[in-house]
Amino acid sequence: MSDHTGGTLAPFGQTLRHLTGDVLWDGMLAAAYERRHPIGSTLLRQGEPGTHVLALRAGVAKVIRQERSGDLTLLAFRGPGELLGEVAVLDGGVRSASVQAISDCSVAVLSGAAFLRFVTDHHLFPVMVRYALGRLRESDLARGGRDVVARLSAALVNLAEVSAESPSPRHEHIELALTREELAQYLGVSRNTVTAGLAELGALRVQSGRKRIVIGDLSALRHAASMLRD
Questions:
Q1: Helical (H) or strand (E) element with 25
Q2: CA neighbor of 82 nearest in space, from 114, 66, 112, 105
């Protein structure tokens, strides 16, 4: 699905770029500088002060929180057109979660002061509230509804499509830095259920390693996801 920007609209919900429009989005990033993060790297760390925000230009990242028990919980995925780390800047606190790249990512780095000034000058606080509510809604949608294999295949297609450089990838070998436990957290099911679902998708050249999910034929997986959806 494409939005008015001409790129791929992140399937996890409306991106901030979609909500603001191209002119405001580009204006906000005018004072930013670009930074690249390879797959598996950390973009933001939990507990650090909110000194800056990141605008995700390309790739997909996962938002993870370390609990008091030491366990890690996957909270969400973020794709192009999304902001990362804005909550800590808006409330003046520390980062409540870490962000890691599950594919090669390109981000625009904007200082907290510049971000707050832009939001204030352009009266964007209502938009930021709407954006935050949309993120909550997407989490609910990911964890309910259809058959687990259908939700799993749809999630993998969504992640692969927004992480690929081309907006219409066909038969690429796509690697995502994801574990079965993280997919289980995202879908609200057990790890064993995800393992069984990935085994069913093995015929479509979907493979899982210790910390990687590899999609060998995206077009085949996309077709299967559409059939399961029907």
A1: helix 22-28
A2: 105
State how far the Cα of 79 lies from the Cα of 161, in Å rounded to an integer.
10
Strand partners, 141: none
Residue carrying structure tokens 């780390």: 85
- What confidence tier does 141 reach under pLDDT thresholds 50, 70, 90? low
DSSP string computed for 156-224: HHHHHHHHSSSSS--S--EEE---HHHHHHHHTS-HHHHHHHHHHGGGGTEEE-SS-EEES-HHHHHHH
Distances (CA, A) of 131 to 13, 81, 83, 204: 9, 12, 10, 35
Quote the strand ranges of 79-178, DSSP E: 83-84, 98-101, 105-111, 174-176
Average of pLDDT values for 74-100?
Answer: 92
If one counts every other C-beta atom within 10 angstroms of the C-beta of residue 222, the result is 21
pLDDT tens, residue by residue, 107-123:
999 999 999 999 999 99
pLDDT digits (tens, 9 = 90+) for 60-70: 999 999 889 98
Report the amino acid identity of residue 127: V
State mean pLDDT over 162-166: 62
